[in-house]
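Possible regression after last week's pipeline update?

I re-ran a chain I had predicted before the update to compare outputs. Posting the input and the new output here so someone can diff against the archived version. Not blocking, just want to make sure nothing changed silently.
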Amino acid sequence: MPVFRKRQMRIERKTPEQIEKMRRAGAVVANTLELLREAAKPGVTTADLDSIAERSIRAAGAIPSFKGYHGFPASICASVNDVVVHGIPDETPLRDGDIISIDCGAILDGWHGDSAVTVPIGTVRPEVLELSRVCEQSMWAGIEAAVAGGRLTDISHAVEKSIRANPLPGGAKYGIVEDYGGHGIGTEMHQDPHVLNYGPGGRGPRLEVGVCLAIEPMVTLGKPDTYTLPDEWTVKTTAGGHAAHWEHSIAITENGPVVLTRP
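New output (post-update):
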């Protein structure tokens, strides 16, 4: 779940033992997302997916991170088509040709895991599938840039560079959502630093061993401008273009970045 805030940063470093606890929380999230990938089909509602997620998380002895977070009413964010982030699950069935971005978080023994995937529903237009691929690829580029000794915005620049390397037909650009981004993670779901998905590299604090981050680009077909619905959660593209959202939680180690939200 992305967050946007501006204040003086306090970046935590985790011990190897704490990172291992985060890996266990991340595995709960990863396994839950795999269940949701399999369940997300035409006719299934996002409320159905939310119920599956909550059962999976609680069966693993964990707690849904999102449910009740600042009043959020569900265990997952379910963002369909032109919804960028924070979609609230409801009784609307998924349709053939939709895409859904599913953001999921879990707390296990006090430690958080947070991850998101974009899932095609049935037969999806090629340009929408390519949008998701470009977004996922940029996430991996950002993860590869999360190395000890680098700077925070090396991640941001790697994400943007990856997206810009894939222009749309006719030379148009994918939109990079600017108001939301990645974040630190640990005993809280949202910690410093805020991780932008664009900008020049070589800036910001040094990346150190033990820093844990959620890296999560949000990319749109067309302009990236957004607005929030009256529910004060659901963020949609102003132009009505589709959006994709991918996220992994990672730890910076001496041997490079380690993904914590894999099965």
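Follow-up from reviewer: compared with the archived run. The chain has four helices and 15 strands. Marking as no regression found.
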